[in-house]
Amino acid sequence: xxxxxxxxxxxxxxxxxxxxxxxxxxxxxxxxxxxxxxxxxxxxxxxxxxxxxxxxxxxxxxxxxxxxxxxxxxxxxxxxxxxxxxxxxxxxxxxxxxxxxxxxxxxxxxxxxxxxxxxxxxxxxxxxxxxxxxxxxxxxxxxxxxxxxxxxxxxxxxxxxxxxxxxxxxxxxxxxxxxxxxxxxxxxxxxxxxxxxxxxxxxxxxxxxxxxxxxxxxxxxxxxxxxxxxxxxxxxxxxxxxxxxxxxxxxxxxxxxxxxxxxxxxxxxxxxxxxxxxxxxxxxxxxxxxxxxxxxxxxxxxxxxxxxxxxxxxxxxxxxxxxxxxxxxxxxxxxxxxxxxxxxxxxxxxxxxxxxxxxxxxxxxxxxxxxxxxxxxxxxxxxxxxxxxxxxxxxxxxxxxxxxxxxxxxxxxxxxxxxxxxxxxxxxxxxxxxxxxxxxxxxx
Length: 444
Fold this sequence. Notes:
Helix content: 40-55%
Shape: globular
Number of helices: 22
Largest sheet: 6 strands, antiparallel
Radius of gyration: 24 Å
Structural class: alpha+beta
């Protein structure tokens, strides 16, 4: 009977996790992962918590306990990086982070002895590198991506530097952040424990978090170390030098993280290769252009590209129709190798340009610009509409205790294109929302 109760606790937690727009497909491996991360009691209580931020008072009501006991237990969950906390107008709030970027990664962002990190890494490897459901759900189910790539600013020309927008700069994110945390790269840490160490020996201490996430991870359990802006820029520079790709939260305002990713360990970059030409993350607004007159075909760009989007090929000039065999042979000897970019899959990170010894690769603005969600609420709503789970976000049992939170979701919906507004209305089935949309049409 105890075994059944235990199974129910973790099953309820699985259901709670999949109430997110971003979920985690159920499997025996996920069940084992949750057993490592959560005790049975923790699984049971966390499964009852709302999706949106909540107070200790609200948790106390849900758990039928005192506010003091609820806050103590919530703090304990923060110390295990299963929750993060924040402060709004002096009121402490808690939220359960999604699986990724969230509690799955946080468990390996520092060395810890309270769990078996090698066993957990092996489970992660099975769940994400062998089984495909989680990766497909994470990166490809919605049109709006979880993450986006930042361009390597040092390789931009002066002209491009004039046109780059603030939110496209990793340096701007660092400059504007109230808190910056530096932690261990979860991907490389996982792969090291799983017996697949980083092929390029990239640094581990380059995982950047920002804002309340950084502060919470640093204050509770030391999953990140609070650093200043100069040290954060140093982490970016070290990442550039190791040809790492900067992938951050796909929002313009206050992104929670920037990862510095290698092609051999990062799930997103691995997915870019495995499921090409589908792109798992939003690209930059840049694309590399090869100047053939200065390209020497050395292959350094091809070797450095983390997703195999650039290759070196021989020129194939058209042979003169009247050429003799000797003339054709002489022409073949004159053929030279040139770098070629697969623009369909290129992320626009700039790693290739950084590695070109003759500066033959130049980043140019894409003809069609990539649209980035404004903030996390904007991204959540877009993904929920695309996934057909908007009702989960709206009708979460404790999600919207005040009209301000509800208004934030509605304001995003009202700014969407008509097609997505219609999808939202269909999913929500709300007379209130229908009236808001009809009023919006009249104003236009």
